[in-house]
Amino acid sequence: DGGITQSPKYLFRKEGQNVTLSCEQNLNHDAMYWYRQDPGQGLRLIYYSQIVNDFQKGDIAEGYSVSREKKESFPLTVTSAQKNPTAFYLCASSSTGTYQETQYFGPGTRLLVL
Amino acid sequence: KQEVTQIPAALSVPEGENLVLNCSFTDSAIYNLQWFRQDPGKGLTSLLLIQSSQREQTSGRLNASLDKSSGRSTLYIAASQPGDSATYLCALRTGANSKLTFGKGITLSVRP
């Protein structure tokens, strides 16, 4: 089955710790995205990548970092500089990143701070 | 800056009722608009995508309309079922860089 997988489903972060959220897709999509969702809020774009080895900051990139070394993978690192990381993180992909396409979403990772 | 508003935040209806979910936006210069469904603790599933040149799209019991001049979109759900209970989000694509701007969503509960 084609789709997007995110792991882990739940992740706990200690004070001062960096944590990495995994996102993998087997849809052969060029573009991938990371969003953050807080209760009662819409989704906010953290980073996006339209091609391997290239990515751009979204609206709330501070305290986060990404890499895009492979077409199918777009991991997100939540660094210790992100002071309020508790949220639901969603990864998405689309075929070429043009405005005519829909985005397909993974099941999400919930990050909690210990 | 584009702002997307979905009111009310929550809605409860009896099974079988036809209902309309509203989405309003401040800038009519959009490329397309999507409606998504999100079940609790899950990712988003795309329901309908309307291009800026279109007025509506239909899929089964769902119909989405777009009126750019008034800055509004509606999602019509016919003969609602308990399985339709979920949060419905609208999102606009505002530029060629593929960025989506999301509303906060409407949480729908369909009572048996």
Short description:
The complex is a heterodimer of chains A (114) and B (112). Chain A has strands spanning 4-7, 10-13, 19-25, 31-37, 43-51, 54-57, 64-66, 76-78, 87-94, 104-105, 109-113. By secondary structure, chain A is mostly beta strands.
What is the topology?
The complex is a heterodimer of chains A (114) and B (112).
Chain A: E1 4-7, E2 10-13, E3 19-25, E4 31-37, E5 43-51, E6 54-57, E7 64-66, E8 76-78, E9 87-94, E10 104-105, E11 109-113
Parallel strand pairs in A: 2-11
Antiparallel strand pairs in A: 1-3, 3-8, 4-5, 4-9, 5-6, 7-8, 9-10, 9-11
Chain B: E1 4-5, E2 10-14, E3 19-25, E4 32-38, E5 44-51, E6 56-59, E7 62-67, E8 72-77, E9 86-93, E10 100-102, E11 106-111
Q: Which descriptors apply to this entry?
A:
heterodimer, A: 114 residues, seven-stranded mixed beta sheet, 11 strands, 0% helix, B: 112 residues, mainly beta, six-stranded mixed beta sheet, five-stranded antiparallel beta sheet
Describe the 3D structure.
The complex is a heterodimer of chains A (114) and B (112). Chain A is an all-beta fold. Chain A has no helices and 11 strands. In chain A, the strands form 2 sheets. In chain A, strands 2, 4, 5, 6, 9, 10 and 11 form a 7-stranded mixed sheet that branches. In chain A, strands 1-3-8-7 form a 4-stranded antiparallel sheet, with no helix packed on it. Chain A starts with a strand and ends with a strand. Chain B is an all-beta fold and 112 residues long. In chain B, strands 2, 4, 5, 9, 10 and 11 form a 6-stranded mixed sheet that branches. Chain B has a 5-stranded antiparallel sheet with strand order 1-3-8-7-6, with no helix packed on it. Chain B starts with a strand and ends with a strand. The model of chain B has no long low-confidence stretch (mean pLDDT 93). Chains A and B meet through strand 5, strand 9 and strand 10 of A and strand 4, strand 5, strand 9 and strand 10 of B.
